[in-house]
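Entry, Tuesday afternoon. Goal for today is a structural model of the target with flavin-adenine dinucleotide bound, before we commit to ordering more compound. Inputs were pasted exactly as handed over by J.K., no edits. I checked the ligand SMILES twice against the vendor sheet because last time a stereocentre got dropped in transcription.
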Amino acid sequence: MKRYSRAICWFRRDLRLTDHAALYHALKNSETVYCVFLFDSDILGKLTDRQDRRVEFIWRCAAELNESLSKHRSALWVLHGSAEEQIVSLARKFDVQAVFCNHDYEPDAMRRDAAVEAALGEIAFHHYKDQVIFECSEILNGSGKPYSVFTPYKNAWLKKLDEYYLSAYPVERYLSAFAQCAPIPFPALESFGFSPGKLNVEAGESGADKLFEDFMLRIDEYRKARDFPALNGTSHLSVHLRFGTLSIRRLASHAQHSGSAGAASWLSELIWRDFYQMQLYHNPSLAEGRAFKLQFEAVDFPNDPEKYAAWCEGRTGYPLIDAAMRKLNRTGLMHNRLRMVSASFLVKDLHVDWRWGEKYFAEHLLDFDLAANNGGWQWAASTGCDAQPWFRIFNPVAQSERFDPEGCFIRSQVPELANCPDKWIHAPWLMPEIEKQRYGVIIGHTYPAPVVDHAEARIAALAMFKEAIRGSNQRRSM
Ligand SMILES: Cc1cc2nc3c(=O)[nH]c(=O)nc-3n(C[C@H](O)[C@H](O)[C@H](O)COP(=O)(O)OP(=O)(O)OC[C@H]3O[C@@H](n4cnc5c(N)ncnc54)[C@H](O)[C@@H]3O)c2cc1C
């Protein structure tokens, strides 16, 4: 590559200084590198909560990056505005010859990058794979097409994997190329129109490292513990993966070399992450609400606003669903098993369009990621690639009995049921009257009555899906 005297490294969903593809290439190939982060007004402008936890998370990560850079007598240049204007005008101000960044596969981000590249004109725009192990068309099936089923994709992914794809970018060899400067005051979150206060996880590389080290002690148990929301069975790293405070190569490498069944199962989840990023890249219309399986585009959801509100607010009368939704609303977090069950419940019990649920999660999840969220919702709604079959419908009571057998998770989020015995906590409306009185669980007063009857709702959902398939077959034969 050509050597540059001055370049910018533009940080986006890769908020770290270690094992960073774009930073490595920028430092290696330039005399002086300015590290830049943009609070993108096109993204922030769409957020309604002025205390959005994701913005606070990013702001804290950026502050830590600035602090780390100050140890190298450098700084993070923090911008606010639209990328096309801000990145280009800083590039001109510093008179750089190149801008380096990492790939982002979301359609809006790809459009933004194309616009920035065009506006940079003669300034080079270099971009790299960083946030996944295999991207875009690196894993294709025998016909040269993207896989739509996970297991063969995973097998091909594992077959292709070798040390080359897992090795870290040795950024530390080139740190002398950071632009030298006096400390720059770090902007307050308020200057971007937001305020801190709701974030309840540690941000930055330091926060990611702590979680990662803790999880390494538990990874061998992952397979057994991962499905139980009351246990500390998963890594809790999703928000860090979302914003790149630790590298996917480091995680995949540990999982691959660890050798236990737990680690293999965890690696599989990291492969799901690559799988959904690859799907979004090949099917950008997923970002516009398109069902992956077109036959289910026409499912006629009644979309009862009251049922939807009960789901959002955690008052469906199904304790596991209510506990999951209340935790989401309170913290921005939700366990994977609960995402699957509550998504299925919204679509197949309450008969609300999966896109409504997808949007709600997008607004509330701390780890919201377009590809994984869309993939998860379309999986639960049976409209996605390699999704839950349409006729398989989770029973919310059976799921509760199986994955929260003593109701520990439910009790932690639904205080009205704190005294409810284990036997009744999954379906408290079935409790005999005398016990309801004894434990202070008065259905319809202290705790809501079930918003639907699961058995009836299941039959209606099957009919809805059958009708969509019938309609789609008819259209095809016309
Ligand atoms: C309806 C629905 C919506 C979801 N929305 C998101 C989302 O917006 N952002 C998000 O990161 N994950 C999403 N997931 C996937 C999964 O629930 C979370 O990644 C997981 O709960 C995060 O917890 P963890 O970090 O402890 O995961 P772990 O179990 O420790 O897994 C490790 C990592 O693998 C990745 N991963 C795990 N499961 C999946 C999966 N099914 N699909 C893609 N990647 C996965 C995540 O990056 C996760 O951090 C969704 C799942 C469903 C069913």
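The pocket of flavin-adenine dinucleotide is lined by residues 226, 234-238, 241-242, 269-270, 272-273, 276, 335-336, 339-340, 343, 361, 365, 367-369, 372-373, 375-377, 380 (CB under 6 Å).
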